[in-house]
């Protein structure tokens, strides 16, 4: 079909997409620009010519299944499955989001064509992340609207969202029928074939023949993955399980509500600003409120969805999973069972909110999780007793360690394990004199350390994901004598600094802050301030997590009405950004370590920079503050050289670096062989590797002990010991 620019009567602009119930489309101010108006006019001309069809060359099967849709009318769907339609308030919510994002988001950016392009890609990707369902012709058709989506959001027009959704559900039905046919046939597992598993390396099929071949390979991979290593053949049970999985997947999309579509679409729009800004539908907002009121009853883990599987993002200190010790970040959960013997429910391709409902439950009850460590290898079933996060389990704890250097010399060192920055808010509001907080607990530990004459202190933030900003500031104040700790910039560009205003310090001796890629937010503020003040050194992964932003939850109902009339969902928007005293943002780049130690976490894709459209790193003007003489560069260079020498001579570290190299190779693979012999050999190698990785992470992040005597932690103490000796040699062992 040829597409021509044409003068189209203005009334035809009312229905730019072939979707039932299309509402009047009011153009935004920028659409009057010549180029953009020409694009929209051309698109409307395409629809008004009588039919919407694929423009690429199609196979015979494509010709048989291709829909010809009259302009302005809904696509043909089975009568038993009516399409959802936008609720009356959805357009109002869309228009409000379009107004709130430019005014409330820290960037202050208007909703633009760049947001439009990003949002369209994110919305399509939300349906089909591995590019298995849509054809390239579908995506080409969608991309013709990449510069007008922003105008639709401003106008409250959701036609494009529903048009893409309809096309996706049609493709799902076609693919599931293909899957049914393929699973009824035979597979040759001796062929030397592979499957693309990297979404960036994948491409959309050009036609249904190519789509069928991709699904044939995908099913071979899934069948091999389900195959027991001791079985000579892939059994019928595995085929049945896959068919049930994809039937459920198709059924899931048929039960999609207008709220679900609105949430996916508007979250694609807000995610075009940054990955932490999202729209919560009314149901999601209710679930959020429930999870908060339950005080983290459940397993105590933050979960996410990636390519149709549930992935562990973070283990909450003091929670059931943390105390269990086996579940780790980057693991995938593929099945869930209730109690000691309940059926293990396959959750692959299940919506994340439904997965959370299966896992969440009352404290004291049992949930069983089918887990693949690191997302690959053999299935392992973990039995976890749900529990409420106890403050005591996530509180600061300290220990005095008698440390001896490899070449001699013994010193007392204080070690503080701080999993989070916490405060008993209710007790603080009641002005109780002895309310619990991380600052008060760490201060008591430091006072005890001083009575035991420790030479230096290690503050372990390696698994601290953040917490109270107020606590981060006051806890930093235990080590510095007044001054700015963090600066905060809001949407209008104004910058406010937050100071430690308490005179004096609790600990003025040598300080080492231990961090990892999992150290985030408030942890990065403390570590960064300690670096900027030259008050101590940072040891650990090359950089911390890199989350330097603050989000707030805005109730849409309250934004629309003076008094909340109904649940219209909520906007979670990034409204501020953190900056360190010297003006550098912690966003994206995090806080760099002075002395770097090799670790698996450094290579895991769990940082802010691994998220799409994360805000860029920038800086503001530095704030005036004191400088201490606790980080002489000659001493830091010596610490690096000595540590590197010890690591190179340590068998445990050499083995760790070998495992890190294997992990990176496996993580970076774009394809997996589906030749059975090669697949099973690779899986056996991965199982052995994952067992080593699991043991390494358990040692690094176990919560049951304050200090675990591992080769890694011994090297942290070696660095601390030599740091104290070096400061003493230069008469710098106290902060002045």
Automatic annotation (TrEMBL):
Key words of the record: Coiled coil, Hydrolase, Protease, Serine protease
Q: PROSITE patterns per the record?
A: PDZ (PS50106)
Positions the record marks as coiled coil are 676-703
| InterPro entries named in the record | ClpP/crotonase-like_dom_sf, PDZ, PDZ_sf, Peptidase_S41A, Tail-specific_protease, Tail_Prtase_C, TSP_N
**Record bears the keyword Hydrolase:** yes
List the SUPFAM superfamilies: ClpP/crotonase, PDZ domain-like
The organism's superkingdom is given as Bacteria
Q: Which residues belong to any copy of the PDZ domain? A: 289-366
Note whether Repeat occurs among the keywords. no
PANTHER family under this entry? Answer: CARBOXYL-TERMINAL-PROCESSING PEPTIDASE 3, CHLOROPLASTIC, TAIL-SPECIFIC PROTEASE
The record's similarity note reads: Belongs to the peptidase S41A family.
Q: What is this protein called?
A: C-terminal processing peptidase-1. Serine peptidase. MEROPS family S41A
Q: What is the lineage of its organism?
A: Bacteria, Pseudomonadati, Planctomycetota, Planctomycetia, Pirellulales
């Amino acid at each position: 079909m040829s597409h021509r620019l044409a003068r189209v009567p203005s009334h035809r602009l009312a229905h730019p997409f072939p979707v039932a119930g299309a509402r009047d489309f009011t153009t935004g101010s920028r659409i009057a620009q010549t180029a953009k108006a020409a694009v929209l006019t051309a698109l409307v001309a395409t629809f008004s010519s009588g039919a919407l069809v694929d423009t690429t060359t199609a196979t015979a099967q494509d010709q048989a299944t291709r829909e010809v849709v009259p302009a302005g009318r809904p696509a043909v769907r089975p009568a038993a499955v009516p399409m959802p339609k936008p609720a009356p308030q959805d357009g109002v919510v869309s228009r409000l989001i379009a107004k709130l994002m430019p005014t409330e988001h820290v960037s202050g950016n208007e909703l633009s064509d760049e947001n439009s392009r990003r949002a369209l890609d994110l919305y399509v990707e939300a349906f089909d992340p591995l590019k298995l369902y849509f054809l390239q012709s579908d995506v080409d058709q969608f991309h013709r609207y990449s510069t007008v989506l922003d105008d639709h959001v401003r106008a409250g027009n959701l036609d494009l969202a529903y048009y893409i959704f309809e096309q996706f559900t049609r493709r799902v039905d076609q693919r599931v029928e293909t899957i049914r046919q393929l699973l009824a046939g035979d597979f040759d597992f001796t062929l030397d074939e592979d499957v693309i598993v990297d979404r960036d390396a994948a491409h959309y099929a050009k036609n249904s023949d190519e789509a069928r071949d991709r699904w044939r390979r995908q099913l071979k991979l899934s069948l091999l993955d389900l195959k027991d290593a001791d079985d000579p053949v892939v059994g019928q049970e595995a085929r049945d399980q896959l068919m049930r999985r994809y039937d459920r997947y198709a059924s899931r999309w048929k039960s999609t509500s207008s709220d679900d579509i609105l949430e996916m679409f508007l979250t694609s729009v807000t995610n075009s600003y940054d990955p932490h800004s999202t729209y919560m539908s009314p149901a999601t907002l209710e679930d959020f409120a429930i999870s908060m009121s339950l005080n983290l009853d459940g397993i105590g883990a933050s979960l996410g969805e990636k390519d149709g599987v549930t992935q562990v993002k973070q283990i909450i200190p003091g929670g059931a999973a943390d105390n269990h010790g086996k579940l780790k970040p980057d693991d995938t959960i593929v099945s869930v069972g209730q109690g000691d013997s309940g059926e293990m429910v396959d959750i692959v391709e299940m919506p994340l909110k439904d997965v959370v409902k299966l896992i969440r439950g009352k404290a004291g009850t049992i949930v069983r999780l089918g887990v693949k460590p690191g997302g690959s290898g053999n299935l392992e079933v973990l039995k976890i007793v749900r529990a409420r996060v106890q403050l005591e389990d996530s509180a600061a704890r300290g220990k005095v360690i008698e440390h001896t250097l490899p070449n001699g010399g013994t010193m007392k060192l204080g070690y503080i394990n701080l999993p989070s920055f916490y405060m008993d808010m209710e007790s603080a509001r009641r002005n109780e004199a002895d309310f619990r907080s991380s600052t008060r607990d760490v201060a008591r530990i430091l006072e005890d350390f001083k009575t035991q004459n420790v030479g230096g202190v290690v503050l372990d933030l390696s698994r601290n994901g953040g917490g109270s900003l107020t606590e981060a500031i006051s806890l930093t104040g235990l080590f510095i004598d007044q001054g700015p700790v963090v600066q905060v910039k809001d949407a209008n560009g104004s910058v406010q600094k937050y100071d430690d205003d308490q005179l004096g310090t609790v600990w003025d001796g040598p300080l080492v802050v231990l961090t990892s890629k999992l150290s985030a937010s408030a942890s990065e503020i403390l570590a960064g301030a300690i670096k900027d003040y030259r008050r101590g050194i940072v040891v650990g992964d090359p950089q911390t997590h890199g989350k330097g932003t603050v989000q707030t939850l805005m109730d849409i109902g309250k934004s629309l009405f003076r008094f909340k009339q109904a649940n219209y969902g909520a906007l979670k928007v990034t409204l501020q950004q953190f900056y360190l005293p010297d003006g550098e943002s912690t966003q994206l780049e995090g806080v760099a370590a002075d002395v770097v130690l090799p670790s698996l976490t450094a290579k895991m894709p769990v940082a802010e920079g691994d998220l799409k459209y994360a805000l860029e790193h920038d800086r503001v003007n530095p704030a005036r503050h004191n400088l201490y003489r606790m980080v002489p560069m000659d001493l830091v260079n010596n610490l690096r050289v000595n540590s590197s020498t010890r690591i190179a001579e340590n068998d445990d570290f050499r083995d760790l670096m070998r495992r890190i190299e294997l992990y990176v190779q496996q993580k970076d693979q774009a394809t997996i062989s589906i030749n059975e012999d090669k697949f099973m050999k690779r899986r056996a190698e991965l199982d052995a590797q994952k067992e080593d990785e699991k043991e390494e992470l358990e040692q690094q992040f176990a919560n049951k002990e304050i200090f675990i005597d591992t080769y890694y932690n011994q090297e942290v103490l070696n660095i601390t010991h030599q740091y104290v000796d070096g400061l003493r040699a230069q008469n710098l062992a106290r902060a002045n």
